[in-house]
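Hi C.,

You asked whether I'd gotten around to modeling the 135-residue construct. I have! Everything is below, sequence then structure, no commentary in between.
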Amino acid sequence: MEQSYHFFLALHLYSLYASGFLMFFYLILTQGNFKTEFIFIRRIRLFLPIYNTFLAFMLFTGLLLLAMRKFQMNLHFWLMIASWILILVLAIFHFAQFKKARKIRRYIAFRWMSFLILFCEILLLFLPFVLKKYL
């Protein structure tokens, strides 16, 4: 049981690091220069499934770890769950803004909003670990 817990804890931490990297990469992808509208849209549409897969994997490993701890909750776990929910809500809002920008073909406002949303997502991802020292 102890070995399984440490294995899934490592998977969870690696999924957090990978998600942080993907958030940063998505930020660069949305802020970078592009030659045509088609290339910009294609890059984002190819990237989003990978990004969402890691968000789902992060949730899955977190729930597995919580089950191994017999669902004993503390403030840190509630903070991680709340952060993940906020990240998911922001990701959904971000995708809705992408669809809206694609429909009206105005990407300047989308790029600015994308920067703000992804910056907030990165902060939310690492917030529970920063606050763990103080809880």
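If it helps when you're writing up: DSSP finds four helices and no strands in the chain.

Thanks,
B.
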